[in-house]
Amino acid sequence: MTLLDVSIVNVAVPSIERGLHASPQQVQWVVSGYALTFGLALVPAGRLGDMLGRRRMFLIALGAFVLTSALAGAAPTAGTLVAARLLQGVAAGTLAPQNSALIQDLFRGPERGRAFGVLGATIGLATAVGPVLGGLILTLGSGPDAWRWVFYVNVPIGVVALVLAARWVPRTGTEAARPHLDLVGTLLLGGGVVAVLLPLVEGASGGLSRWWWAYALSVLLFALFGRWEVRTVRRGSQPLLDPRLLHIPGYPGGLLIGLLYFAGFTGIWLVLAMYFQFGLGYSPLRSGLAVTPFALGAAISSMISGRLVPRLGRWLTVVGLIVVGIGIGATALVLRHVTGPSAGLACALPLFVAGLGGGMVVTPNITLALEAVPVEMAGAAGGALQTGQRIGAAMGTALLAGVYYSTLSRTGGDYSRAVSDALFCASGSMLLALVLAVAELVRRRHVQGSPPAPKPHPEFDLHRT
């Protein structure tokens, strides 16, 4: 449900905009605000799971997600919907680390691999069916309030999940005696990210110039965050993000590659949904079906790439980023020149190619980023990677939507130009990630002649995220 709500809302955005008379800025906050608070909650929530027990936090977070989904569905105004989505993101970000941590605690050896395989398949399924399910819900609904069922659908599913979890999820006995929750670090990091995000969300109404001071504030908050985390480590306490991770080979590059990839990847679904429905008059269901080729391509390559990581290493992410960048760029060119009912079909092949590349990026990048992380830091490292991905998703969604709305306003309603400009922006983000991936590849080849690093423990891989 939590990952479904990242993609299912995109096809409902035009209906929300019409039903609540929402402004472009409010629409962007409905999407990017969820991803932002999702990401900011991940690491602190993992620490709360250690403190209060993962089963307890799982049930609390699941109940909160059901409640906030109901609040989002019942929102009378756009402002209320934004607030509900922010709270829903907090609940989702609290639930996610308990999910993976419970698998770590309850399974060992080959069973753990199979359990995480099921989790990975679930994540892939949520990505694939999100836009289609959202379109189907809006098609079956009637009237301007049909979008509310995109959120209400979580309520019955969540209630059943609560009953089953209360009965089947055991206590793991992993509660820490006196854990330290880095509240100051959380506030500094959250404030810095919001200061970066705010001008991007407000970009459609001149926010990039009106909110210039927010960038200076973000630099200050990030600097204070870094100093605070160093001080926290020196005092022997648990930081939100351990600064020593930045000195581990492969980890900083993997973190930045993931952030840039999600910055370009996540926002394309929002601008494509707005283009197909507002620009071409597609129904929500048809809009969702038009972007399904990407999900299909990603599902196919994801199943294969996981087996190739030990043999191909960083080459896999390099090739994947090249392919996804070409696919998104080709989609931008197609949509600029092909309009009308045939546009969705015309972009099916380049979107499928982009999906094939995307499936070769995420899982291999996380595996390679964590392979040299010491076991005592593996949990925090995995949480930080997820946080970077969620922050990248929030910032990318705001940026791409801002480009879309700005071009639409500047060209007097040229939807083809608006969507292609936004997709070219996403392709540029993939290019930056590719530069970092190539740099990582060069670094790895440079140190091949050095003494081999200790073999990573199995727990260093995706199981620690």
Which SSEs are present, and which pair or pack?
Elements: H1 4-7, H2 13-19, H3 24-52, H4 54-73, H5 78-106, H6 109-140, H7 149-152, H8 154-168, H9 183-201, H10 207-210, H11 212-234, H12 251-265, H13 267-279, H14 284-290, H15 292-312, H16 314-337, H17 343-346, H18 348-358, H19 362-370, H20 378-410, H21 415-446
**What separation lies between the terminal Cα atoms?**
18 Å
Query: Which geometry do the CA atoms define?
Result: globular
Mean pLDDT: 80
Oligomer: single chain
Helix and strand run: HHHHHHHHHHHHHHHHHHHHH
Parts with pLDDT < 50 across at least 5 consecutive residues: 451-465
Strand content: under 5%
Number of helices: 21
Helix content: over 70%
General description of the model:
Helix 3 packs antiparallel against helix 4, helix 3 (about 25-50) packs parallel to helix 5 and helix 16 packs antiparallel against helix 21. Helix content is about 75%, strand content about 0%. The protein is globular, with a radius of gyration of 21 Å. The protein is built from 21 helices and no strands. The two termini are about 20 Å apart. By secondary structure, it is an all-alpha fold. The chain has helices at about 5, 15-20, 25-50, 55-75, 80-105, 110-140, 150, 155-170, 185-200, 205-210, 210-235, 250-265, 265-280, 285-290, 290-310, 315-335, 345, 350-360, 360-370, 380-410, 415-445. The longest helix is centred in the last third of the chain and has 33 residues, at about 380-410.
